[in-house]
Amino acid sequence: MQASNPIFTIDLFPLLDQKLITLLHSLSAADWEKPTIASRWCVKDIAAHLLDGNLRTLSMLRDGYWGESGGNLTSYSALVEFLNGLNADWVRAMRRVSPVVLIALLENSGQEYYQYLASLDPFAPATFSVAWAGEETSANWFHIAREYTEKWHHQQQIRLAVGQEAELYQQELYFPYLDTSLRALPFHYRGVEAPHDTIIQVHVTGEGGGDWFLHRTSNEWQLIMKPDKFPACVVSIPGEIAWRIFTKGISRQEANSLVQISGDPALGLPIFDLLAVMA
């Protein structure tokens, strides 16, 4: 798998949304208020954030209505701060909306959101680049795959809180999440020095897991399909915590106790800081 090989996730959106709606209908009043691994957000807050994702995309990208502007955001940290403010404002306002209304809004907007993304040329330039993968310009297929990871991991935050997370670990849904998130590996490792032709293997266990290989060329790291030599380092991550590492959903101390690194530890330790979200 080369880093430039497209990941087509668009056909998974209806299935992922259907699973979300079914899940939300099953929740009790107490479930909606349960805390999650997302800082300061309960289950209902995350559902509201998912709605915001639908409506913001439809408003800005489909309808050309940008509303609130962040002004001249000249740095990644300024952009993250602006987005965090938008997210917090929305979630706070949606606390006055009932779960019944929230589910209906998610169901209706999810269909329009999918239809809009499906209408895009997957190889045309996206309005927003995938910054956490180090791209200044991204194709729509990568933007769509990034949106898939957002929907996947936020739904899984809800599922983790209510004890129903197994549903999203199936290969059809989890592997595309991992494959998209791990496109961040070459950019994330850009400052890690190693001899030419060094191989790092990242192995995620479980039904939806797999293997990703980083290859050191003369001046950069690249994702490759199959190496022709033994890896200098193998990082083995349990499937149930891989997504939490990539979204700041687990402490480094806890993750370190669960991840196995064989070979050169200096090549494996950077995995604990890999982020596949805007944070």
List keywords for this structure.
single chain; 279 residues; alpha+beta; Four Helix Bundle (Hemerythrin (Met), subunit A); Nonspecific Lipid-transfer Protein, Chain A; 2 domains; five-stranded mixed sheet; globular
What is the structure about, briefly put?
The protein has 279 residues and is α+β, with helices and mostly antiparallel strands.
Could you describe the 3D structure shown?
- The protein is α+β, with helices and mostly antiparallel strands and 279 residues long.
- It has two domains: 10-169, Up-down Bundle (Four Helix Bundle (Hemerythrin (Met), subunit A)); 184-273, SCP2 sterol-binding domain (Nonspecific Lipid-transfer Protein, Chain A).
- It has helices at 13-26, 29-32, 43-62, 76-94, 99-119, 140-162, 171-181, 185-188, 239-246, 252-258, 265-268, and strands at 199-204, 210-216, 221-224, 233-237, 260-263.
- A five-stranded mixed β-sheet has the order 3-2-1-4-5.
- A hairpin with a 5-residue loop joins strand 1 (199-204) and strand 2 (210-216).
- Helix 6 crosses helix 7 (171-181).
Task: Outline the low-pLDDT stretches.
Answer: none
CATH architecture of the largest domain: Up-down Bundle
Structural domains: how many: 2
The mean pLDDT is 94
- Sheet/helix structural class: alpha+beta
User: Radius of gyration over alpha carbons?
Assistant: 19 Å
CATH topology of the largest domain: Four Helix Bundle (Hemerythrin (Met), subunit A)
Tally of contiguous helical segments: 11
In whole angstroms, the N-to-C terminal distance is 26 Å
Helix fraction bin: 40-55%
Please state roughly what percent of the residues sit in beta strands, choosing from under 5%, 5-15%, 15-25%, 25-35%, 35-45% or over 45%.
5-15%
Order of helices and strands: HHHHHHHHEEEEHHEH
Order of neighbouring strands in the sheet with most strands: 3-2-1-4-5
CATH superfamily of the largest domain: dinb family like domain
